[in-house]
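Consider the tokenized backbone below.
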């Protein structure tokens, strides 16, 4: 195992490959990363459909608003997407087994058409899990008012979840409460809680882009000195909130029943700077996940400096630095709310294909039918 990845593992950091920027899954590349000990999870989108839509968009010179006549039938796309996801899950199955269900997941988004109502999200998640048929498939769900019940419902049904688009403290607490509700219901239904992983993703780069734009408008050396501060600082506060929950009686009861502790997942890519390892280095913390794009993995191996826990003991400094932003007219609550709204809009527009691969087919599988029928009650 490369030294830097060994150091991250010793610090309790899992590295998941962020494959979202690519047109197609590359199974051989994923397999090499896994065998080298670089990555222990994958964040991706259904590949064949995304690839074909990219081809269509490039052919007509604009975003694909309509499905062309040569586009494969939905059933074909469902099978292609499920086959790719099944292969990825199989590549990571040894990691999933050896980590006791902590790692080894393939996290995938649902079709943007299924993200408006909680019941639709749960039905689609049940159908995709049934179609892929692998326990280490994780479903990405945007953390909005409409879809928070779907987080609880999926966890209740034993479906691992990655909550996305979480930027402000209130939303974070709502997401964690929804996760606990789902795990409690799963426990009451005698689900095996060690099979139901949950991660909350936070993108410090998106925060820094928004805040740095405000600081640039303010101008001056003092404002410039605060560039790149907000993202890691907010991430440290998010980890502190997470750990307060981990120490709560509610979650202690769940962990005593076998539940895996929820984890923070850091989106470490820096917009426009593919070799910038700053967020990997700044957010080293036990019990977290670093989502690293393929291009950034080599940069991490080449020059990342992992020097122990960079989160604990720095929360006070994070609060102080965030307080300084107000001097320059940066209103964090408004910015993080805007980021959440943009993340939700991006999910609906989506990099995921417009042609769904997750339609429930009750005639083919009783599992999907039963899960969807139960979901309609618990997610409404």
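A designed sequence for it:
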């Amino acid at each position: 195992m490369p030294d830097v990845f060994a150091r991250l593992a010793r610090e309790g950091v899992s590295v998941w490959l962020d494959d979202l920027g690519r047109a197609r899954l590359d199974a051989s590349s994923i397999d090499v990363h896994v065998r080298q000990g670089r990555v222990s999870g994958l964040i991706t989108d259904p590949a064949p459909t995304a690839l074909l839509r990219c081809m269509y968009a490039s052919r007509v010179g604009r975003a694909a608003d309509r499905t062309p006549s040569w586009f494969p039938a939905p059933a074909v796309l469902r099978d292609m997407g499920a086959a790719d996801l099944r292969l990825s899950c199989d590549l990571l199955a040894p990691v999933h087994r050896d980590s006791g269900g902590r790692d080894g997941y393939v996290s995938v988004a649902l079709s943007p058409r299924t993200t408006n109502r909680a019941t639709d999200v749960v039905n689609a998640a049940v159908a995709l899990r049934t179609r892929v048929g692998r326990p280490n498939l994780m479903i990405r769900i945007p953390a909005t008012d409409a879809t928070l019940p779907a987080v609880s419902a999926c966890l209740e049904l034993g479906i691992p979840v990655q909550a996305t688009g979480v930027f402000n403290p209130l939303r974070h607490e709502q997401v964690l409460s929804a996760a606990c509700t789902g795990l409690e219901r799963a426990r009451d239904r005698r689900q095996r809680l060690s099979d139901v992983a949950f991660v909350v993703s936070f993108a410090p780069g998106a925060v820094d882009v928004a805040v740095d734009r405000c600081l640039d408008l303010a101008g001056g050396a003092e404002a410039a000195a605060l560039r790149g501060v907000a993202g890691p600082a907010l991430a440290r506060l998010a980890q502190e909130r997470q750990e307060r929950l981990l120490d709560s009686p509610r979650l202690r009861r769940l962990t005593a029943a076998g539940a895996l502790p929820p984890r923070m997942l850091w989106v470490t890519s820096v917009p426009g700077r593919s070799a910038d390892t700053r967020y990997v280095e700044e957010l080293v913390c036990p019990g977290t996940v670093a989502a690293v794009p393929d291009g950034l993995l080599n940069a991490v191996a080449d020059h990342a400096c992992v020097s122990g826990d960079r989160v604990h003991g720095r929360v006070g400094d994070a609060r102080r630095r965030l307080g300084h932003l107000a001097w320059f007219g940066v209103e964090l609550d408004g910015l993080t709310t805007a980021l959440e709204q943009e993340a939700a809009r991006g999910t609906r527009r989506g990099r995921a294909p417009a042609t769904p691969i997750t339609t429930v087919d009750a005639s083919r599988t009783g599992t999907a039918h039963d899960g969807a029928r139960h979901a309609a009650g618990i997610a409404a």
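The radius of gyration is 20 Å.
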